Amino acid sequence: MDTSTLSPKRYCWGLLPKNITVDMIELDKKNASFETKSKTLLGTSTIAIMIQPIVKIGYDMLKNLFVNYEISQQIFLKIVLYFISMLISYFIIWNSLRKAHKIAAERLPKESKKVRLTLRTTKRRELTGYIFLFLNLACLLFFLMLNDSEEGAILVINGIISLALFLSVWTMPPISFSYRNKFLTVEKIEKI
């Protein structure tokens, strides 16, 4: 099931369309082309230690940028920088999703059946997107109130929250959870 093909996306924002659709590809039970193997030779603590200097350099650059150009006093420029941090997150998720689709297409057998699953929604609303959107707005308010050149840290936090926002809305709508709990019911399955 490719949850990024969920349509309409407004389902993730709490609006209840009559039906939602999602594309699936039927695989043989013996197909192991999507089995993942751990390729990381380094432990997570080693990776965290290696990333620390990069984070420090990035933080110092942002701090110097805010001090040298007095960005803390320019509300319009602060808002633009805030939305640029969201835009960067958007492009990271978009590029990752595009790459994942390309890798999946290469691994799929040529004779795979493609189907579209149509699900009927019930009265339960899915509010996944609002959790991270609320956190983004809270970061924005905090970001606008800061005037001491520490805004760079909030930009980084906003970027991480934006990654989670776009990831949750684009690629991880809880379709299987909703189906298991009878919030979605299968209406039809059709070949594409």
From TrEMBL:
<feature type="transmembrane region" description="Helical">
    <location>
        <begin position="79"/>
        <end position="97"/>
    </location>
</feature>
<keyword id="KW-0472">Membrane</keyword>
<feature type="transmembrane region" description="Helical">
    <location>
        <begin position="40"/>
        <end position="59"/>
    </location>
</feature>
<dbReference type="InterPro" id="IPR005915">
    <property type="entry name" value="Tandem_5TM"/>
</dbReference>
<protein>
    <recommendedName>
        <fullName>Tandem five-TM protein</fullName>
    </recommendedName>
</protein>
<keyword id="KW-1133">Transmembrane helix</keyword>
<feature type="transmembrane region" description="Helical">
    <location>
        <begin position="152"/>
        <end position="172"/>
    </location>
</feature>
<keyword id="KW-0812">Transmembrane</keyword>
<feature type="transmembrane region" description="Helical">
    <location>
        <begin position="127"/>
        <end position="146"/>
    </location>
</feature>
